[in-house]
Design brief:
Layout (H helix, E strand, L loop, with lengths): L5 H5 L2 E2 L16 E8 L2 H15 L3 E8 L10 H19 L1 E5 L11 H14 L3 E4 L7 H18 L15 E5 L12 E4 L4 H8 L3 H4 L7 H16 L4 E5 L14
Parallel strand pairs: 1-7, 2-3, 2-5, 3-4, 5-6
Antiparallel strand pairs: 6-8, 7-8
Helix pairs in contact: 2-6, 3-6, 4-5
Length: 259
C-alpha cells in the first residue's frame, strides 16, 4: 500500500464542524462547553482544542464538577481544594476560558437526577454548540459518572417540560469525548484537530497545576499528553493533534459520490 494513501484510510474524519479552521461567521460567536470531573481534567485533555477554537473567536467555558481536592496526600481536602480553585482560574485564564465550579466533592459526584438537572441548567445558561466531556468508560468512577450525567443533561436541557432556572436549549450539535489515559477502554479516536501552533500556550496553562508540574502524582501528565499529541499528529499528518471520540450513532457519512 502506498504510504500516501494510508492517511486517507486511517483518518476517518479530520476537522469536522467543531474543529473547523475557519472563523465563525461575522457576528456569530459559538460556545464550547467542556465538562470535567476534576479541575485539570479538561485542561489536559481538551485544553488544546479550547485554545485553538478560542483563537478563532469561539467562547469557551469549563465546568469543573469537583476541584479534585482529594488528590494531595500532604494537604487536607479543604486546603487542597482552595489551592486547586486558584490553579483552575489561572489555567483557564491562559486558555481563555470562563470557569464554573459545581458544588460537588471529589469522589462523591452523585449519580442522580438532581445533578443532571444542575448540569442541564448550566447548559441552558451558557448555550453551547458543542459539549466536550469524558469518555463513557473509565478506571475513575467520577469520570464515567460525569460522562453519563452529561449525556442525560444534554437531553434534559432540550426539553421544554424540564423546568430549571433557564429556558430550554436545543442548539447542541454533538458531544465530543476527550482522549484521557484513564478513560481508554473502547475509546476510538474519530475526530482529529491540528493543534501544532497551540502547544506552548497549552503548556503554559496546564503547568499552573502543581500535579502536572510534578511533586504530587508519580504519573508524568505533561510527558504523556505532549507525546500523545505527537502520536495523534502522526496519524493525522500534522505535527501535533488531539483526538476525540463521538457516539457510535453519529459515525456515519452520507455522500452523493465517493470523495
Amino acid at each position: 500500500m502506498s504510504a500516501s494513501l494510508r492517511p486517507r484510510i486511517y483518518l476517518v474524519v479530520l476537522l469536522v464542524g467543531l474543529a473547523s479552521t475557519a472563523a465563525p461567521a461575522s457576528g456569530q460567536v459559538r460556545t464550547i462547553l467542556a465538562i470535567g470531573a476534576h479541575a485539570g481534567d479538561m485542561e489536559l485533555t481538551a485544553g488544546l482544542l479550547l485554545i485553538h477554537q478560542h483563537k478563532r473567536g469561539d467562547h469557551v467555558v469549563i465546568l469543573q464538577m469537583t476541584l479534585g481536592e482529594g488528590g494531595n496526600p500532604r494537604l487536607s481536602p479543604t486546603d487542597y481544594g482552595a489551592h486547586k480553585r486558584r490553579e483552575a482560574l489561572a489555567a483557564d485564564s491562559v486558555i481563555g476560558a470562563e470557569t464554573i465550579f459545581a458544588p460537588y466533592k471529589d469522589g462523591e459526584i452523585p449519580n442522580d437526577e438532581a445533578v443532571r438537572r444542575y448540569v442541564a441548567d448550566v447548559i441552558r445558561q451558557v448555550k453551547p454548540v458543542y459539549v466536550v466531556t469524558h469518555w463513557k468508560k473509565s478506571i475513575h468512577k467520577d469520570h464515567s459518572i460525569t460522562s453519563a450525567i452529561v449525556q442525560d443533561a444534554v437531553l434534559l436541557a432540550s426539553l421544554d417540560g424540564v423546568r430549571t432556572a433557564h429556558s430550554a436549549h436545543r442548539g447542541i450539535r454533538g458531544i465530543y469525548y476527550a482522549d484521557n489515559w484513564e478513560d481508554g477502554e473502547d475509546f476510538q479516536p474519530y475526530v482529529y484537530l491540528d493543534v501544532s501552533d497551540d502547544m506552548q500556550q497549552w503548556k503554559d496553562a496546564v503547568t499552573k497545576y502543581e500535579f502536572v508540574r510534578s511533586g504530587i502524582s508519580t504519573f508524568r501528565y505533561l510527558d504523556y499528553y505532549e507525546s500523545l499529541a505527537v502520536v495523534r499528529g502522526a496519524i493525522a499528518g500534522k505535527q501535533r493533534a488531539v483526538a476525540f471520540d463521538i457516539d457510535s450513532f453519529g459515525k456515519r457519512r452520507v455522500l452523493d459520490v465517493l470523495p
